[in-house]
Design goal:
The complex is a heterodimer. By secondary structure, chain A is of the alpha/beta class. Chain A contains 11 helices and 13 strands. In chain A, strands 1, 2, 3, 4, 5, 8, 9, 10, 11, 12 and 13 form an 11-stranded mixed β-sheet that branches. In chain A, strand 6 (170-172) and strand 7 form a beta hairpin. Chain B contains 9 helices and 21 strands. In chain B, the strands form 6 sheets. An 8-stranded mixed β-sheet of chain B has the order 8-9-11-12-13-14-15-16. Classes of the chains: A alpha/beta, B alpha/beta.
Chain lengths: 334, 374
């Protein structure tokens, strides 16, 4: 179900309903008090703003921050973004921001968006040293323009190759992997910040697929379009229990030729998508990418032989990771 | 920068100083270890595709790989449309083993094999014995800087008659294996490949020119088993076995008998009949005992009675040399003459206690015994 509202309508509505925000019970599986803010599965907020581009075609940080805050307030039905963030993390949390940087500059999680996220975390009292921007490898992060920071004087930024992997093998359904120490041993909470794009094998890479960057052997699990491997990875308790929010970078997206950066198939979607239900978010991303492919006269992902069936699998009775059926998704477009 | 000469000298000194014995890691110096680093060697079996993609044609998986991505094996990477191996000259382990450990029972008995492996594998067996090195990527483990000449020189110095490419899956380091084999042949050191046989015909034919013997793990005789427990396919493995036969490469087969998964007598009978009809009765087949490993820990070790009945099935199908492995001191470790039934080679584990083969014949009845005996 899709609801479209203007930004003006949204603010008016949130002023009225802000205090009646939905506060879920603490996550009993994790045995923690946070997140206090937990929205029912299936809700996705998608915000787009073409003014996010400057005249030089770079991103305007103020507009990105405003988009993020608006989306956060809308998602949690609260009066301010600060209220939303404060309900997600405590000052004791060590928050990992899982970006996706494999494709280097041009098609990696935007630093501007990550900066806006970090700013919000700092604002609710999380010390810089308790924020870790991370991905698979230092080289991936550097290639995307991130500065590696391993001393606790500032916000940390490094790859699994710096932090290492668990000694224990974790099994979940079809997969068996060592997990990133950042995920298992260093962070108490994760914000998943994927970039929405086409993937030449599994169809699309977005929220669920981003956690292939948390296992030591992603090369083993791309067969059969990543199905059921991607869903199985996301069943791992350290992912299920720690990921409190997914913020999709849909500012610049790619509808063909991914995961590497192929500028000829990129478009400026100028969007940010917020969800806690990664399956619902991926279902929306799939729809957006297929829509763009149709607009460009290209076959759908299914017709191209790479329908991202893993998204459906993630929603099935064995996984129950979220809602995939488009009609059951509570999509709010701003 | 360390020169090759200096490296060889240093390595030799380290090894000699360590008072090496077989089965011991011969390079233990942390200073000799490197990461995968930037030592890139262009891969030999791939096709360039549009948009900087490549298609690897080394193994039947034939991965199509985007820029900056790796193949299933995790040791070959596309960089800007050129495909590289990350493990050439980068073994993660090296031992001196008895050739019987491979196992190769009809190949230079009682000789030593200089045994190396890099990380990586092109399948994922749920029962892998060496998964800590086969299922990781080069940058996740310590590797050594050992060019082919160093390997060959060291094997010769340690009086190893062969270099064995083993432990993980040598198909995925085929360029390194080939170059080591060439360097070994120049020094009269043979090369043997211990493999799953999951390789395309062209690279296998190329390797056949430099290898003396191959051991193939035939993991089951059903596609279902290969799909569910190996993440591979049976048919290409059978094709490799036939190809090796055609190329006249000495080949032995190992079949790990896993309770309830590949021990069905009918399947075993079919497999043995296939071996006799397609490869001949003289291909040695080793039926080895399974122990719970990696992701298949919910099963007991193979009952010895199962191994014995499996061996009987093979004998009844006409296979001349059937062995039982991973069961020390079992009579099934010995070689018997198919003509007079006299014991030819008596083994205890990897040790040869008695050898009654003269030249390549049974000392008792003069029956020619297939194999490479010296």
């Amino acid at each position: 179900m899709t609801k479209s509202i203007s930004r003006r309508e949204f603010f008016l509505k949130s002023m009225i309903t802000g205090s009646s925000a939905f506060f879920a019970k603490p996550d009993a599986r994790a045995g923690i008090l946070f997140p206090k803010n937990k929205v029912a599965a299936g809700r996705v907020v998608s915000i787009r703003d073409n003014s996010v581009r400057t005249s030089k075609n770079s991103l305007n940080p103020d507009v990105v921050e405003n988009m993020l805050n608006t989306a956060m307030s809308a998602f949690f039905s609260v009066g301010s973004a600060a209220e939303a963030w404060a309900g997600l993390f405590s000052e004791n949390d060590v928050v990992g921001i899982k970006v996706n940087c494999l494709a280097g500059r041009g098609m990696s999680t935007s630093q501007t968006l990550v900066d806006a996220i970090v700013k919000n975390l700092l604002a609710i009292g999380i010390p810089a040293r308790q924020i870790i921007i991370w991905d698979r490898a230092n080289d991936d992060l550097k290639r995307a323009g991130y500065k590696i920071q391993t001393s606790k004087r500032d916000v940390l930024c490094y790859g699994n190759d710096h932090a290492g992997y668990t000694r224990q093998l974790y099994e979940s359904g079809s997969i068996g992997s060592f997990l990133s120490n950042i995920l298992v041993h260093q962070c108490t909470a994760i914000i998943n910040v994927p970039i929405m794009k086409d993937h030449g094998i599994v169809g699309i890479t977005n929220a669920l697929k981003n956690f292939f960057g948390a296992i030591h052997n992603p090369n083993k699990y791309h067969s059969f379009k990543g199905d059921p491997y991607i869903a199985d990875v996301n069943l791992l308790p350290d992912i299920r229990n720690k990921v409190r929010l997914t913020i999709c970078d849909a500012l610049t997206s790619q509808y063909e030729g991914g995961p590497p950066y192929m500028p000829q198939w990129c478009w400026q979607h100028n969007g940010v998508i917020v969800a806690q239900d990664m399956v619902a978010m991926d279902s929306i991303a799939w729809n957006i990418i297929d829509g763009k492919r149709a607009e460009k006269g290209m076959p759908s992902l299914k017709e191209a032989g790479r329908e991202p069936t893993y998204i459906r699998t993630a929603a099935d009775a064995d996984h129950k990771l979220g809602i995939c059926e488009p009609n059951a998704i509570d999509l709010i477009e701003i | 920068m360390k020169s090759r000469r200096r490296f060889i000298k240093n390595t030799s000194m380290i090894c000699l100083g360590a008072g090496l014995v077989p089965n011991e890691l011969f390079v233990s110096s942390a200073s000799a270890a490197t990461g995968a680093g930037e030592l890139l060697t262009e891969a030999r079996y791939y096709d360039k595709l549009a948009h900087r993609k490549i298609k690897c044609v080394l193994c039947p998986r034939e991965c199509v790989i985007d820029d900056l991505e790796r193949g299933y094996c995790g040791v070959r990477e596309n960089r800007g449309g050129t495909y590289y191996t990350l493990v050439h000259s980068r073994p993660c382990t090296a031992h001196i083993d008895p050739i019987e450990k491979k196992p190769l029972f009809h190949f230079m008995p009682a000789s030593m094999a200089f045994s190396i492996a890099t990380v990586g594998c092109n399948v994922e067996c749920k029962f892998c014995q060496n998964w800590q090195i086969s299922q990781v990527r080069p940058e996740q483990i310590r590797n050594y800087d050992m060019p082919p000449e160093v390997i060959a020189e060291y094997a010769k110095e340690k009086k190893c008659k062969s270099i064995a490419y083993t432990y993980t899956e040598p198909v995925i380091f085929t360029e390194y294996m080939y170059d080591c084999a060439v360097a070994g042949n120049e020094r009269d050191v043979a090369s043997v490949m211990i493999s799953n046989g999951y390789i395309n015909p062209k690279p296998m034919k190329d390797l056949s020119k430099v290898l003396r013997a191959v051991k193939i793990d035939l993991k089951a005789f059903t596609e279902k088993f290969y799909r569910n427990l190996v993440a591979g396919e049976l048919k290409p493995v059978l094709d490799t076995l036939v190809l090796l036969r055609e190329m006249d490469i000495w080949t032995e087969i190992v079949y790990l008998v896993i309770p309830s998964h590949n021990d069905d007598p009918n399947e075993l009978k079919q497999m043995c009949q296939w071996i006799v009809s397609e490869l001949g009765a003289d291909v040695p087949v080793h039926f080895t005992r399974f122990y719970p490993q990696y992701r298949l820990k919910n099963l007991p070790p193979t009952p010895i009675s199962t191994l014995e009945s499996t061996r009987k099935i093979a004998q009844d199908a006409g296979i001349n040399f059937c062995y039982i492995g991973n069961v020390p001191q079992h009579g099934g470790e010995n070689t018997y003459c198919p003509s007079c039934n006299k014991m030819l080679i008596k083994r205890r584990g990897y040790i040869i206690l008695e050898n009654n083969i003269t030249g390549n014949r049974c000392a008792n009845c003069q029956q020619e015994i297939p194999g490479i005996w010296s």
